[in-house]
């Protein structure tokens, strides 16, 4: 079975942090989870779960999104 990678934007916020906790409690491979957040200090908080982190602001310059 192919492993799924999960990206959680705003993952250090209330909803994202709880999603990280649920995935961890369900024994999901936390190396396959990447948490994005614009606040580096928040990212340090979720690293205890073994997730990968990226400090990025998706709203900056349109978040790189195109129409």
Structural class category: alpha/beta
Strand arrangement across the biggest beta sheet: 1-2-3
Please provide the count of β strands: 3
**Number of helix segments?**
2
Termini separation (Å)? 34 Å
How much helix is in the residues?
25-40%
Give me the strand/helix succession. Answer: EHEHE
Low-confidence stretches: none
Tally of discrete structural domains: 1
Mean pLDDT across every amino acid position: 84
Q: How many strands, what sense, and barrel or not for the largest sheet? A: 3 strands, parallel
- 3D shape: globular
Rg: 12 Å
Percent of residues in beta strands? 15-25%
What does this structure look like?
The chain has 67 residues and is of the alpha/beta class. Helix content is 28%, strand content 19%. It contains two helices and three strands; from the N terminus they run βαβαβ. Helix 2 links the parallel strand 2 and strand 3. It is globular and about 35 Å long. The chain starts with 5 loop residues before the first strand and ends in a 12-residue tail after the last strand. The mean pLDDT is 84.
